[in-house]
User: Fold Kinesin-like protein from Westerdykella ornata.
Amino acid sequence: MSAESSAFRTYVRFRPLNANDGEASAFDYTIDNTETKRKITISADGPRKRTWKSGASFCDVFQPTASNNDVFNSVVAPTLPLVMEGATCNFFAYGHSGSGKTHTIIGYHNDEEKELGLCLAAARELFQALEGINSDKDPDHQGNNDKLGVAVRIYEVRGKFAYDLLNKGTQCHVREGPDGRTHVRGETEMLEGGKVRVRPIVAIPCWSFAEMRHTVLSGLASRQTGSSSIHDESSRTHAVVELEVVNKTLLALREAVIERESELVPVGKRATDVYLEENKKRIIKTADGQVTINPAVHIDQERIDEAEAEKTKYQGRLEAAENAVRDYSQAYPHPSLGGKFVFVDLAGSEYLDRGTAALPTGPKQTPQERQQGRQINTDLFTLKEVIRARASNQARTPFRGSPLTLILRHHFLAEGKGQSAMILTASPSQTQFAASMNTLKYGDLVGAASSE
Assistant:
């Protein structure tokens, strides 16, 4: 994979048949290598013989014998130099429930080096790369506060909310601010002096791979599962794991921004209250019940101006804190500061062809689980449209189409010289042919758009 290209890349990973497949046999698939991409043709036997053929959409196809390490070396490892240059690289796992997404991104056997999930394998490589920088003799970044580490954020997106898995599953609201940026904020904290603090998703700094492994696995242990249309222990949320290169100074500067925001809230509220109070004095009701302005009453403009001046002062303090973060990041002697890996273990796509008796009927779902399934499919459809819109340079990218894409907007826009990729996980079982075909169709649309 060329580290120069910024196109969205798609891969396919077939898992082996397992105990959940029962006595089912594998369907047939063939791979046709073009000059730069691969085509897949799949065909199933049984009550309805079906065949489907993709376009030249896939960068690689991993056979059932491939390990997580094989996938990492092909998909993620080549992007490490980009992250070390400060870029953001995004990786998605898409597929139906039980197809191997979580095994690929998170990993089930994280005590085995070859089976580390992609997020932990990336963390391991990041720490190895940072070791050389931290041992550099350059005195400009030898202080303890300037030592580079990796901060992790882990949250799941469920419905219209995000849930911070490193902060006791705190429900976080997803809002689009007047600045056009997406803000994911937790519960409001009332502080002394009228200050109001609303914290973003918690970032836990780690200074060794062992510490990172413990933090990631502890956070992901509380991820929600439930019944899907395929089986009864499916991930019903989109799990997002962010790994960012940070140091203590950068984290302290970001904390100062949160503090300045909390100071601004009561001052801004007072300015609004003063304005409303003064203007309310002029409002009167006429004899016929109409509301009008009394020209004989004058507002205290000096009071309004004083409150606005105070608000402007605190806005300036906030802006100065934000500029300090930016200036420090730009002046830091190594470009890796702020570089980021983002891994998204998407919830299982909801698809089941009930048109043949050869396919399972799936576990019974509650009405709430069915609603979750509809929201998941909306999220996945919108994600596909976002990827296609960006690949074809459309004037409008539909980030607002779902909470998931609204949250991920920052990562897409921060990508810059980074890369994004999707790993399509599929089961080769005859009983899941329709679901696997649906996964590959989704990836074919994404990959074809990205190749244009």
The chain has ten helices and 19 strands. Residues 259-314 form one domain. Confidence is low (pLDDT under 50) at residues 1-6, 226-233, 352-361. The chain has two domains: 9-243+336-450, 259-314.
